[in-house]
Design a protein that fits this description.
mainly alpha; elongated
Length: 127
């Protein structure tokens, strides 16, 4: 696909989609697979419920968590939907904080994948 903006939006919303639109199927499967695997492990670890703080308790951490989660739009919507009904003892899980950090890293990794999906410098250099 020639339109970089469409590729960027697709890659941002759904990890691996930007590379698929670009025709790089192997990279799309690897990037999408790794990010979705990280997301799944994070959710199963209780990461959807982290950070367990409100805006007044830590604005910077709250904003950083939102920015990182928004790296994967579909994943962010899933995790925020799950976080609406947390289990009563989720903060006691040994993996709770690790899951939250893994969820953030998956989103941040997808920001890099978006940049790679939009990057056409290799195509221009090859011509």
């Amino acid at each position: 696909m020639e339109n970089g903006i469409v590729r960027a939006l697709a890659a941002w919303a759904l990890p691996g989609a930007g590379h698929a639109l670009k025709g790089e199927w192997t990279k799309a499967l690897i990037v999408g697979g790794v990010i979705w695997l990280m997301f799944a492990v994070a959710i199963l670890s209780g990461g959807a419920y982290y950070p367990g703080l409100e805006w007044e308790e830590g604005q910077l951490l709250y904003l950083l968590n939102i920015f990182a989660r928004l790296g994967n739009v579909v994943g962010a919507m899933i995790s925020w939907t799950l976080s609406m009904t947390p289990p009563p003892n989720v903060a006691e899980w040994a993996t709770y904080e690790y899951g939250g950090r893994l969820l953030e890293v998956a989103g941040l990794l997808n920001y890099l994948a978006v940049i790679d999906a939009v990057d056409d410098s290799r195509e221009v250099a090859g011509k």
